[in-house]
């Protein structure tokens, strides 16, 4: 059963099979909310934690933040099978490259490896990636590689099915020059708002702050999420 | 060789919002009407009058929405003469709801009804798909998806009239910058005890955000 991290793709090989319950015949969709923000000295990335199979929540504590190198992470909305395959391939290539160079790889390199693969196989893949990390040359960087294989660097980026609902919040609340704590707070708020409105996003908010010193992970549990007045 | 142009239905795929404050309501909308990729009207006022102190915001199919608004305008006029005073906002919303529900298969328009009356003060009603629900604020149209997070975070109970107007303008501005089907100018209507005040905010006077 192919796992799928966004809007449903109906490709059911088995239909009306009585041996499996109805929810297990549905395409697995982890309709996600993910985001990444740059700050001076690193990046903050965040994601929700819900994986769904139709209306059943298959995993309510998923970890959607994938390390592809010590200081580089990626967030993967889109078909989970596709993005897992691409991420594994890029992890391998990046590891090799880093050994050849004898120093940590650049975030831009990682993002470009994703882009090359997503562009070459654009017809077959359904993968939109956000790559974020820290390197010595340019500090914290966020690169978005949407479906189709474009690459663009942005100070802040959101993705997944829940992202539609927080574009307005992101545009109005992001300010350049935020500190790490402010970025973490901004991400937590944005993820909370998206999880409230998007049925395919929910659970806990997982955050990671990547700086020169390494990766600091945080989990904000359901009852600790910020509350908004009318929600 | 004959080149046949496919006729696309006119949509006001749009952003509309209405907010209550103590003593009235503020309605806001963008001004774009599209037919497929073409913008057929870039200055349409989607805030339609139903009565002196009751307005509705149109979204969805332009033809359907306008027709519903006209029908309810007529029915409200008759009703207000019959009862001899200004109609209640709830009555206007119910009339809209009745049409939306009865013809829900044929119509594809969503109207948000908002206004002021003596009995209930400022009220906002949603009539999506034929339901009737009063809410402190409501957003609608294709652009509304992008600002759900923003309105959830920024709305506070007990905002003043000026705060509401600023809130509405900010919301419309954010939605227009993200939604391809919303754009143009922002129309604002503020309704309170004294009456309705219409305002138009041009594109270059709208608030801008970090990437503009």
From TrEMBL, chain A:
<dbReference type="Pfam" id="PF00227">
    <property type="entry name" value="Proteasome"/>
</dbReference>
<comment type="subunit">
    <text>Component of the proteasome complex.</text>
</comment>
<dbReference type="GO" id="GO:0002376">
    <property type="term" value="P:immune system process"/>
</dbReference>
<comment type="subunit">
    <text>The 26S proteasome consists of a 20S proteasome core and two 19S regulatory subunits. The 20S proteasome core is composed of 28 subunits that are arranged in four stacked rings, resulting in a barrel-shaped structure. The two end rings are each formed by seven alpha subunits, and the two central rings are each formed by seven beta subunits. The catalytic chamber with the active sites is on the inside of the barrel. Component of the immunoproteasome, where it displaces the equivalent housekeeping subunit PSMB6.</text>
</comment>
<dbReference type="GO" id="GO:0005839">
    <property type="term" value="C:proteasome core complex"/>
</dbReference>
<dbReference type="GO" id="GO:0005634">
    <property type="term" value="C:nucleus"/>
</dbReference>
<dbReference type="InterPro" id="IPR000243">
    <property type="entry name" value="Pept_T1A_subB"/>
</dbReference>
<keyword id="KW-0645">Protease</keyword>
<keyword id="KW-0391">Immunity</keyword>
<comment type="function">
    <text>Component of the proteasome, a multicatalytic proteinase complex which is characterized by its ability to cleave peptides with Arg, Phe, Tyr, Leu, and Glu adjacent to the leaving group at neutral or slightly basic pH. The proteasome has an ATP-dependent proteolytic activity.</text>
</comment>
<dbReference type="InterPro" id="IPR016050">
    <property type="entry name" value="Proteasome_bsu_CS"/>
</dbReference>
<comment type="similarity">
    <text>Belongs to the peptidase T1B family.</text>
</comment>
<feature type="active site" description="Nucleophile">
    <location>
        <position position="32"/>
    </location>
</feature>
<keyword id="KW-0865">Zymogen</keyword>
<keyword id="KW-0888">Threonine protease</keyword>
<dbReference type="InterPro" id="IPR029055">
    <property type="entry name" value="Ntn_hydrolases_N"/>
</dbReference>
<dbReference type="GO" id="GO:0005737">
    <property type="term" value="C:cytoplasm"/>
</dbReference>
<keyword id="KW-0539">Nucleus</keyword>
<protein>
    <recommendedName>
        <fullName>Proteasome subunit beta</fullName>
    </recommendedName>
</protein>
<dbReference type="InterPro" id="IPR001353">
    <property type="entry name" value="Proteasome_sua/b"/>
</dbReference>
<keyword id="KW-0963">Cytoplasm</keyword>
<keyword id="KW-0647">Proteasome</keyword>
Automatic annotation (TrEMBL), chain B:
<dbReference type="InterPro" id="IPR029055">
    <property type="entry name" value="Ntn_hydrolases_N"/>
</dbReference>
<dbReference type="Pfam" id="PF00227">
    <property type="entry name" value="Proteasome"/>
</dbReference>
<feature type="active site" description="Nucleophile">
    <location>
        <position position="14"/>
    </location>
</feature>
<dbReference type="GO" id="GO:0004298">
    <property type="term" value="F:threonine-type endopeptidase activity"/>
</dbReference>
<dbReference type="InterPro" id="IPR016050">
    <property type="entry name" value="Proteasome_bsu_CS"/>
</dbReference>
<dbReference type="InterPro" id="IPR001353">
    <property type="entry name" value="Proteasome_sua/b"/>
</dbReference>
<keyword id="KW-0645">Protease</keyword>
<comment type="similarity">
    <text>Belongs to the peptidase T1B family.</text>
</comment>
<keyword id="KW-0963">Cytoplasm</keyword>
<protein>
    <recommendedName>
        <fullName>Proteasome subunit beta</fullName>
    </recommendedName>
</protein>
<dbReference type="InterPro" id="IPR023333">
    <property type="entry name" value="Proteasome_suB-type"/>
</dbReference>
<dbReference type="GO" id="GO:0005839">
    <property type="term" value="C:proteasome core complex"/>
</dbReference>
<keyword id="KW-0647">Proteasome</keyword>
<keyword id="KW-0888">Threonine protease</keyword>
<dbReference type="GO" id="GO:0002376">
    <property type="term" value="P:immune system process"/>
</dbReference>
<comment type="function">
    <text>Component of the proteasome, a multicatalytic proteinase complex which is characterized by its ability to cleave peptides with Arg, Phe, Tyr, Leu, and Glu adjacent to the leaving group at neutral or slightly basic pH. The proteasome has an ATP-dependent proteolytic activity.</text>
</comment>
<comment type="subunit">
    <text>The 26S proteasome consists of a 20S proteasome core and two 19S regulatory subunits. The 20S proteasome core is composed of 28 subunits that are arranged in four stacked rings, resulting in a barrel-shaped structure. The two end rings are each formed by seven alpha subunits, and the two central rings are each formed by seven beta subunits. The catalytic chamber with the active sites is on the inside of the barrel. Component of the immunoproteasome, where it displaces the equivalent housekeeping subunit PSMB6.</text>
</comment>
<keyword id="KW-0539">Nucleus</keyword>
<comment type="function">
    <text>The proteasome is a multicatalytic proteinase complex which is characterized by its ability to cleave peptides with Arg, Phe, Tyr, Leu, and Glu adjacent to the leaving group at neutral or slightly basic pH. The proteasome has an ATP-dependent proteolytic activity. This subunit is involved in antigen processing to generate class I binding peptides.</text>
</comment>
<comment type="subunit">
    <text>Component of the proteasome complex.</text>
</comment>
<dbReference type="InterPro" id="IPR000243">
    <property type="entry name" value="Pept_T1A_subB"/>
</dbReference>
<dbReference type="GO" id="GO:0051603">
    <property type="term" value="P:proteolysis involved in protein catabolic process"/>
</dbReference>
């Amino acid at each position: 059963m192919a796992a799928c991290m966004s809007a449903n793709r109906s490709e059911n090989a088995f239909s009306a099979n009585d041996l499996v319950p109805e929810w297990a015949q549905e395409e697995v969709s982890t309709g996600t909310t993910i985001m990444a923000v740059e700050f001076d000295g690193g990046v903050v990335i965040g994601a929700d934690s819900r994986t769904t199979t139709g209306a059943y929540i298959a995993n309510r504590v998923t970890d959607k933040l994938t390390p592809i190198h010590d200081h580089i992470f990626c967030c993967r909305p889109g078909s989970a099978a596709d993005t897992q395959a691409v991420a594994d391939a890029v992890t391998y290539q990046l590891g090799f490259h880093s050994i050849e160079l004898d120093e940590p790889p650049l975030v831009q390199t990682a993002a470009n490896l994703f882009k090359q693969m997503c562009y070459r196989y654009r017809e077959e893949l359904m993968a939109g990636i956000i790559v974020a990390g820290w390197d010595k040359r340019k500090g914290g960087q966020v690169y978005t590689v949407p479906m189709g294989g474009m690459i663009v660097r942005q100070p802040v980026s959101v993705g997944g099915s829940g992202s539609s609902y927080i574009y307005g919040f992101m545009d109005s609340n992001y300010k350049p020059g935020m500190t790490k704590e402010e970025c973490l707070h901004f991400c937590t708020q944005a993820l909370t708002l998206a999880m409230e409105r998007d049925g395919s996003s929910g659970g806990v908010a997982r955050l990671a702050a990547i700086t020169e010193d390494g990766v600091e992970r945080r989990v904000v549990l359901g009852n600790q999420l910020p509350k908004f007045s009318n929600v | 060789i004959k080149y046949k142009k496919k006729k696309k239905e006119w949509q006001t795929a749009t952003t509309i919002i209405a907010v209550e404050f103590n003593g009235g309501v503020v309605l806001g909308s963008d001004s774009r009407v599209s037919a497929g990729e073409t913008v057929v009207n870039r200055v349409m006022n989607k805030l339609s009058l139903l009565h002196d102190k009751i307005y509705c915001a149109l979204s969805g199919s332009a033809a359907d929405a306008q027709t519903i608004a006209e029908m309810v305008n007529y029915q409200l006029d008759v009703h207000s003469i019959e009862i001899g005073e200004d109609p209640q906002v709830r009555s206007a919303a119910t009339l809209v709801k009745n049409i939306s529900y009865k013809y829900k298969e044929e119509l594809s328009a969503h109207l948000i009804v908002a206004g002021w009356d003596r009995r209930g003060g400022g009220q906002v009603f949603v009539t999506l798909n034929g339901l009737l629900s009063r809410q402190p604020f409501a957003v609608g149209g294709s652009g509304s998806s992008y600002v759900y997070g923003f309105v959830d975070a920024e709305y506070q109970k007990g905002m003043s009239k000026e705060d509401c107007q600023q809130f509405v303008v900010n919301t419309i501005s954010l939605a227009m910058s993200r939604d391809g089907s919303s754009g143009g100018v922002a129309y604002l209507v503020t309704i309170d005890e004294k009456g309705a005040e219409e305002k138009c905010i041009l594109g270059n006077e709208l608030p801008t955000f970090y990437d503009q």
